[in-house]
Amino acid sequence: QIITQSSHLAQAPSSAISHQPSSAIIHPSVCHKREPQTNITSHLCKKFNHTGYTMSSSSAKRSSDDPNVTDTKKSKTSSAILNRYSGWTVPSQHYDLSTIDIRDVSPQQFYKEYIRPRRPVVIKGIPPDLSSIQSWSNLQYLDKTAGDQTVMVERRANASEKYGKGNEISITFAHFLKLLQSGDELHYLTTQDVQADPDGRPDILPPFMKALSHDFPMQPQLMGNLIPQNINLWMGNNNSQDGSSSGLHHDYHDNLYIVLAGRKRFRLFSPIDAQYLYTRGSLLTVHPNGRINYIGEETTAHGADLGAYAAAVAATRQKKAEERLQEAERRVEEGRDGALEELAEAEEELERAMDALIDAEVDEDEDDDGYDDEAENGDAFHGTNGCRLVDKTVKNPNNFSRVPVELLEDITRFQHEYPDLQKATMACCNVNQGEMLYLPASWFHEVTSYSGEKGAHHLAMNYWYVVLLLLMQTFTNVVFVGNEIVIISLALHS
Hints:
Helix content is 18%, strand content 24%. The protein has seven helices and 25 strands.
C-alpha cells in the first residue's frame, strides 16, 4: 500500500528511503485532533491536526507535579478497566533490557523483532544517516547554527526540584546555551510548541528544529516503517549524583531516543501494568497494541477519534456504493440479464451509504458546536505570525503516574499508599552517549538524566512516530516527495 499524507515539513532530505514498492495504491488523508486521536478522512481536517495522532500532554509537551507476539504473560486486568495488551512484556523484576548493535540489524528485521511485537531495546551506535547530529555536542556549533531561534525552556526553583511542573520561560537558544556553559542546572530544553496551519495540521518540526534540519533525515532508515509525528531536542545540566528525573509517565507515540551527550537511565513498565501504576487519568481501555485510553478520551486502537473513524468508514462505503452503481448502469446499457435488479440494489445501497455518512458527519458537527473549546478554556495560543500553536504544556496530564519517583527504588515501601505497584514488573537500562533506545508507544518510563563529567551537559534527540500501521504483517517505508509523506508497504516473509 502507498499512503499519502499532507504535512508541513522542513526541507526533507530524500535519503530516507529505499525499498521496492508494492503495486496497490491508496490515498487517504490522515489528520489528527488535540488528544491523541487519529482522523483518516480529509474532509474532517478542520477538526484534526496532523499525521494521525493528536498530541496531548503526552508525547508532546507534558507537565506533571511530581496478537502477534512470542513472549507474553497473562493479562493483568481489574474490574475497572479492560486491558487487552498483547505485546511483549517484562519477563522478570528489574529485568535488564536487551541490547543490539546497529550494524547487526536491518530495518525489516528491526520492524519484525521489535516494532511489531512492541519490544523496547537499546541500540549501540548511531546509524550513518544520523551521524551529523553528533556535532551537536559542540555548543559553539549549535550557537552558530540556531542561536537566534527562540525556545521555551523549563525552569525550576532549585537543583533538587523535579522538572515537569510546566514552569516555562521564552529565551533565545543562544541565551540558553550560555546558561549551560556557565554550569546552570535550573533550565531544561524539552519539546517545543509547533504551529498549525488553518486546517489545524501542525508542523512536524518547531522553528528551532528547522534551523538544524539539514543535519538529520526526517525519516531515519532504521525506522522506515513508521510515520514521523514530532522531532525534539532535550538538553540540560545535572552534575548531581542523583541526576534529574522526568517522572513516571507514558507517551502516545513510538519513540526513537538518541543520546548525544551524558547518560540516561530508564525504568520501564509495559502497558500490561497500566492499572498498577496510579495514573492521574482514569483508565478505560488498553488496546492490544498498547494504546491506552482514559475516560473521556476514547479512541480506536490506532488512536482515531471514534466519530472521525465512523465518518471515514462511511465515506469509504459511499465510494464503493457509487462504483457499484456505475457498474450496474453499464450492465443495464449493455442489456445484461438481471441488470435492472442489480441497478435497484445498487441504488438502495448508495442511499444507505449516504445516510450513514450524513449520520456520522452530523455526530461530528454536534461535537463541534461552533465554539473553540480550547480558547474558552484558555488553551488556544498563537505564534507571532498569527498561526495557531499546538502541543502546549498541560499540567497534571492523564498519562503521568502519581507514584513518587523515589518509590521506584524500593517498591516494597509505602505499601499502604501504593499497594498495586508491587504487581508491576520493571525493566531497566542505561543509554549512553552514542546509543539509542527504541520505546514503543504507551510503555511507562521514568528517565533520569546525568551530565557525566563535571561541567558537561546532557543532550538527546528524539523522533516520535505515529503508531497507525503497527501490528500489521507488512514492512512499510516512508518516502518524501516535496511536502508529501508516501508510505510504501512490503509484505514480510517468515
